[in-house]
Write a structure and sequence with these properties.
By secondary structure, the chain is α+β, with helices and mostly antiparallel strands. The chain has a domain of 90 residues. The protein is 30% helix and 35% strand. It has a five-stranded antiparallel β-sheet with strand order 3-2-1-4-5, with no helix packed on it. The longest helix has 22 residues. The chain is elongated, with a radius of gyration of 24 Å.
């Protein structure tokens, strides 16, 4: 995008939402162009604020208050939020993380691990036993 890109961290001050076109890639990922106001925080320099448009995946886009990596031109301050390679926003990485979570959950269930429902069921049975003890004794044991 720029001849000389400088890397920095930026705080998203506002997400003004979709700012124009939307499209879908060959993987079925829906993309929006969002307009953001960010505070760029260059190392060893004063922060500055700019408005920028960035192509983000619908459903996994940065929001107000998020810290993101950016590339910017030191002279013009033109800034680009770096989505690719960011585990929170890169659709490829988000898909891979969800796939790994599903596989881990499946493995745990197949191995007889205690899932959330097992723990909730056990807690329910514990509460029911305690209530029965209170009903019999008239007070907690």
């Amino acid at each position: 995008m720029f001849d000389k890109k400088t890397q920095a961290e930026a705080l998203i001050l506002a997400d003004d939402g979709p700012a124009g076109s939307t499209d879908t890639d060959i993987h079925g990922v829906h993309w929006d162009h969002h307009k953001y106001i960010v505070e760029v925080r260059p190392t060893g320099q004063d922060p500055f604020r700019v408005e920028t448009k960035t192509k983000v995946a619908t459903g996994s886009s940065p929001g107000t208050g998020d810290l993101v990596k950016v590339g910017y031109d030191p002279k013009s301050h033109k800034t680009e939020i770096q989505i690719e390679g960011e585990p929170r926003y890169d659709p490829k990485l988000v898909r891979e993380a969800k796939k790994q979570q599903r596989a881990a959950r499946t493995q745990a269930l197949l191995a007889g691990g205690t899932g959330r429902r097992d723990r909730e069921g056990s807690a329910f049975r514990q509460r029911r036993r305690r209530r029965a003890q209170v009903d019999r004794a008239g007070h907690l044991p």
